[in-house]
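Lecture notes, unit on protein representations.

Consider one protein chain, 215 amino acids long.
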Amino acid sequence: MLVAMKLISVNVSGPKPIDSVKKLSQTGIFKEPVQATVYIGELGLAGDVQVDQENHGGPDQAVYLYSQEDYDWFAHEYSIDTKPGMFGENLTLSSFGTDTLYIGDRFEIGEVLLELTDPRIPCGTFAARMNDLEFVKKFKQAERPGVYARVLRVGEVQAGTPASYKRGHSDVTILESFRLFYKKSPSKNEIERQLSAPVSCRARAAYEQKLVDLS
């Protein structure tokens, strides 16, 4: 099903200092909206940085997307004054549509074509950015992780650009992948299901190691 939606914000950040994070003294999580046209290449948005490249970024997690609908949920549930870019996403969409999101689904935004790869897993940097040590737990419980994507077609985007969503061929949902990350003892079948989908190289390596550990 093709679902119409809108890109409401394009968000980028240079490296900025952050407190209360042992491993990092700088972060790229403090994204701010820009009104200008921004080029999206295979490794992400021009003018944007991903400081922790061990756990973020790369061609399979080049772009992080979040929806205004999910922001609205957090604003209501936790009385947070949310704004685009607050969760560190590059692109804020008006909605992810009414359908369930699957690994391998695609978003077309202006010239750019994105393919979904992984859910966002919250970390200590995220909690520090929110100035809330409990926010990782809250984000996990909310099960509204947003989604990473690889860039299948590069191009320029700007706030206000129409966007559309198209179902892919995988039957592995973003939420299933999110929940599996926290499962202490996933089964061989659950892991193989993830490997059947076009997940990121980083996730694929982790799942393949889990299979080795099970053997």
